Amino acid sequence: MLRFCRTFTSVGKLPSRAISNRVIIPPKTHNNMGQPTLKSLRGDYKQLPENSNFIDKFYHELQLFHDEFLVARLNKHYTDFEENPDDLVFELEKYVELHVIPSHSVLTQKSELMALGANLPVVHCETLGDKMVIERFLEFCRSVRYTLRLNGGHSFIFDVMLQSNSVFQNFEKSKCQQEKMAN
């Protein structure tokens, strides 16, 4: 009989795929690095395919970005970016770069690129959890952009998703409380 035992130990700093002080390019009106902007793709709302779970797995990030940045700092909701969805992606990229990465990483000045003459500091994460948070937010940003491309650039879907998730969570809580009261 085989037994598997897995452990994880690390004494080194974990490099992330994120690079600090990245240049975030503001939305343009015609193209963005050779790709059409989300605003230019804007059209009728298109229902997302049933098997597309690329944004459904990011409820926590949707809520966190909404509460900590959109409402708290910009006094906006996802629906407010309906006219220009590129601005939503730009604000999300700024949030990741200015809030998520600095709070989950340590900036160091040593890197292989600096040995080659490039003066780019690298982001290092002290724990695997911090690295996973950063990479999850980077994936969330890509998923938001992809969702907006698929549904015709309509950002209201994110507010709808948060509202329906909130209603579902409240229903589950009340159902659980009723079951406890019955027992």
Automatic annotation (TrEMBL):
Pfam families in the record: FMP23
InterPro entries: Fmp23
Full protein name: WGS project CCBQ000000000 data, contig 00107
Organism for this UniProt entry: Kluyveromyces dobzhanskii CBS 2104
